[in-house]
Structures are given as C-alpha cells and as structure tokens.
C-alpha cells in the first residue's frame, strides 16, 4: 500500500512538473516573439518620428535619400542595423537623442542589414553594426564596426 501511495505521488509530481515546464517554455517563446515584434515595429519608424524634418541628418536608407544627400554634397555614413542587435538599438537611440550633434553636411543612412543584400554586397558588409563612411562622390573613406556617436563623429572627422 505504501509503495502505491509513493508511486502515485511521484506520478502526480512528474505530471505537474511537465505541465509547469510546458507552460514556461510556451510563455518564454511568446515573450521572445512579442519582444522582437515590438522592436522591429518601432525601430524603423523611430528615426522619422524623433528628428525634425529640417534636421534630417539621420534617416532610413532609400534610393531617394541617397540621391538627395549626394546632390547636396553631403558626406554619407551607412549604418547597417538590425532590430535584434542590442548595440545597433543603442546607437539608434543615441543618434536620435543627440541628433543636434550630427553635422549638417553628414547624412547617416540607416540600412536594414537583414533586408538590404545589395548594399551589403556592394560595400562588403558582413556583420550588423557596421558603419561605412563615403565621401560626397560615393567613394569609401573608412569603415568600422560598433561604437557610439562619439566614435562615429571622431571616425567621420568631426
């Protein structure tokens, strides 16, 4: 009788443990999906929303933005960013918070590292948070990976 009670307790504990583990794994998976969705939904629009149009020196990459910057004779900086890269998110926030420190003749184009294969190939970008500095004619001046706005300004010659 005692062994049946002991066995029953073990079975009940095992079932409860399996149910708890399954619910924890499911919730963790949902948290990751929700977190990623929130970041990717917010990240692309934050650049446009936070910086006044007359000081649009940090903008999402597009062919139109590239042409406008080259026409103005601006120095260009491609910032290969992702929605899941924590250091990219950090630099993105820093650029938005400190946009007044970005020189008016420097245009930072935020390139989607995950989606823009053409630019990655053209500029040999192999890792997110790569920054590629180009002169007004589109010729590469320098490149580096990582860092904040202070490093960005120093490497850009400002």
Protein model, in words:
The protein is α/β, with parallel strands linked by helices. The chain has a domain at 47-155: Glutaredoxin (3-Layer(aba) Sandwich). The protein is built from five helices and five strands; from the N terminus they run αβαβαβαββα. It has helices at 2-50, 63-72, 86-97, 117-122, 149-155; strands spanning 58-60, 75-81, 106-112, 130-134, 140-145. The protein has a five-stranded mixed beta sheet, with helices on both faces. Strand 2 (75-81), helix 3 (86-97) and strand 3 form a beta-alpha-beta unit. Helix 1 runs parallel beside helix 3 (86-97). The radius of gyration is 24 Å and the shape is elongated.
Taking the sheet with the most strands, its summary is: 5 strands, mixed
Strand content: 15-25%
Q: Which CATH architecture of the domain at 47-155 is right?
A: 3-Layer(aba) Sandwich
Which segments are poorly predicted (pLDDT under 50) over 5 or more consecutive residues? 26-45
- CATH third-tier fold name of the domain at 47-155: Glutaredoxin
CATH homologous superfamily placement of the domain at 47-155? Glutaredoxin
Query: How many angstroms does the end-to-end distance come to?
Result: 83 Å
Summary, kept brief:
The chain is an alpha/beta fold.
Index terms:
elongated, 158 residues, 5 strands, alpha/beta, five-stranded mixed sheet, Glutaredoxin
Write the layout of secondary structure elements.
Blueprint: H1 2-50, E1 58-60, H2 63-72, E2 75-81, H3 86-97, E3 106-112, H4 117-122, E4 130-134, E5 140-145, H5 149-155
Parallel strand pairs: 1-3, 2-3
Antiparallel strand pairs: 2-4, 4-5
